[in-house]
Design goal:
five-stranded mixed β-sheet, Beta Polymerase, domain 2, 14 helices
């Protein structure tokens, strides 16, 4: 079976994605607005060795969006993104996300999960055609969190990780698979956020978290968790038996980052409170 060009080695994959992106941007309707828009390669993300089908952001000035076809112009002018699947070669597709600069700015300045993922994505996006340096401006905005946001987001992620660890300690059989996935995801989001103030979408979490301070401390435990999910009973016993130690490791890293808080010392009452 021939190799899938979508999943070639990293450098070849990125160059192929750049070439495809330039072809897209030089074609209607984008060729008419290229001087007031930016084409960014969002997938695969820069500086991360992962396999991914190509994904692009096109960021366009709001007033210019009016000159696009109606299926783009109308939602964009209302501040809504437009998402399309692009046929690359008859066998593979790419994801195209089109936003106005104003809506992209609002997105990367928020603190919802979607916004925090967008913060990470824009900071790891590669400008292909960007005469106005929009990626640089958006990435700069994405790197700045509002006052108080680091503590609020860290608190949410810590409580989710704590709840996941508790569920994992009580799980076996199929519930172990669910609890393991939720727990690992919560810990990896926390690890990324503590290091860089953002975290990626789920498909890049493991790769991004591996180089973080917390991810490195939990690397062996994550490996054992994977073995446990795969049916290794000895690994399952080791993994669940070390949950208290993992909680202490995470607590120590969080405390070093944000200091001492009631929600960190005694998370259960805070987990039960309505947000």
């Amino acid at each position: 079976m021939p190799a899938d060009p979508t999943f070639a080695d990293s450098s070849t994959q990125r160059e192929s994605a750049r070439t495809r992106g330039r072809t897209i941007f030089a074609s209607p309707p984008w060729d008419e607005v290229a001087d007031r828009a930016a084409l960014l390669l969002s997938d695969p993300p820069a500086d991360l060795e992962v396999e991914a089908t190509p994904g692009y952001w096109i960021v366009v000035e709001r007033d210019v969006s009016r000159s696009l076809p109606a299926d783009f112009a109308q939602p964009l002018f209302r501040g809504e993104p437009v998402i399309r699947a692009l046929d690359l070669d008859g066998a593979h597709t790419a994801r195209l996300e089109v936003l106005t600069r104003e809506s992209a700015q609002r997105l990367v300045e928020g603190v919802s999960r979607n916004s925090i993922e967008a913060r990470w994505r824009i900071r790891h996006a590669e400008p292909i055609v960007d005469r106005l340096r929009l990626q640089e401006q958006l990435a700069s905005a994405a790197a700045q969190l509002p006052v108080g946001a680091p503590n609020r987001v860290t608190r949410t992620l810590w409580l989710e990780a704590h709840a996941g660890l508790r569920a994992l300690s009580e799980a076996n059989g199929r519930p172990l698979l669910v609890a393991a996935g939720e727990t690992r995801g919560a810990l990896e989001r926390l690890a990324c956020f503590l290091d860089v103030g953002a975290y990626p979408p789920a498909r890049y979490l493991a790769a991004a978290a591996a180089s973080t301070a917390l991810g490195q401390r939990l690397g062996d435990w994550f490996a054992g968790l994977g073995d446990a999910v795969g049916g290794d009973e000895a690994a399952a016993r080791r993994t669940t038996g070390s949950i208290d130690q993992v909680r202490k490791e995470v607590h120590a890293v969080v405390r070093l980052s944000v200091g001492t808080h009631d929600w960190l010392a005694d998370p259960d009452p805070f987990w039960l409170r309505a947000r």
